[in-house]
Amino acid sequence: MRPYVVTDGRSHPTRNTFDLVTLVMAHDDRPLGGLSPEKRALMELCLGGALSVAEIAGHLMLPVSVTKVLLGDLVDSGHLSTRAPIPSAQLPEAQILQEVLDGLRARL
Amino acid sequence: MDSALASDHGAYGAHPDGGVYLRRTVRTAAKILVVGHFAVGKTTFVGSLSEIRPLRTEETMTQAGALVDDLAGIEGKTTTTVAMDFGRLTLSDSLVLYLFGAPGQQRFTRLWQDMTQGALGALVLADTRRLEQSFEVMGLLEEHGLPYAVAVNHFDGAPTHPEEEIREALDLLPETPLVTCDARDRISSTRALISLVEYLQTRTAVQEHV
């Protein structure tokens, strides 16, 4: 299917807050009736647990740009919420790097 | 590579390697790029390290390299698809690391903006038989201001060279780490990533003291 069919011809999400590794969580108290098949599939995937934007695109086999449009709509309708990849205000990069390093060394 | 993963595990929850989903306690997602020229081993490297079966995302672009963002206007234009393979490593209860294997061509510049945004750094995979092919991707990283380390991926039968020769051939800065790795091997690939992150740490320390 051409991507613009899925998104009603739109190429930009309603919000510009999605990075490839923005974490997405679904709210299980929102009705799924009335959602397009793609949005319903996205919700069914996300209701299982948290995933990044890139993982959602990969599982649904949709381009990232199309996935972002669908995610924007579903955040607007209260079906999903997001968590910024790195809450930079609280976590300076030095701390992230140390945690990444510790985690990698623990895998050796 | 099989990208039809969604159908492989039904309701997404029953992946044989463990959870498809993130731990509930994860709060932070970090991103590192694994870049290099065609067939240098990016997908293999990501696959060795990932706890999930690597996933693939695709973007549609015009042949000229623009991300197709005016979808109504692309009828009749030639488009091409760019694939990125990526994987995931849960490093602690609260932290997850994503590795993105990305093509290193200049013409995918919009894709690069997306990928480099928020990335900690990049690991450049290189092949001693085709060192000159690494220049384009190294140039792109410098253009985007993303720090990197170079890992020479060991291919069976490829010539080995002294480090100094490789450094010179790649025109590396003295501080840029150069390591060798076997992208098929999890431990070896982990060590290459560690070299990159140690380097990123020294850079951060320097910046904080300026």
Automatic annotation (TrEMBL), chain B:
<dbReference type="InterPro" id="IPR052705">
    <property type="entry name" value="Gliding_Motility_GTPase"/>
</dbReference>
<keyword id="KW-0342">GTP-binding</keyword>
<dbReference type="InterPro" id="IPR027417">
    <property type="entry name" value="P-loop_NTPase"/>
</dbReference>
<dbReference type="InterPro" id="IPR004130">
    <property type="entry name" value="Gpn"/>
</dbReference>
<dbReference type="Pfam" id="PF03029">
    <property type="entry name" value="ATP_bind_1"/>
</dbReference>
<keyword id="KW-0378">Hydrolase</keyword>
<comment type="similarity">
    <text>Belongs to the GPN-loop GTPase family.</text>
</comment>
<dbReference type="GO" id="GO:0016787">
    <property type="term" value="F:hydrolase activity"/>
</dbReference>
<dbReference type="GO" id="GO:0005525">
    <property type="term" value="F:GTP binding"/>
</dbReference>
<protein>
    <submittedName>
        <fullName>ATP/GTP-binding protein</fullName>
    </submittedName>
</protein>
<keyword id="KW-0547">Nucleotide-binding</keyword>
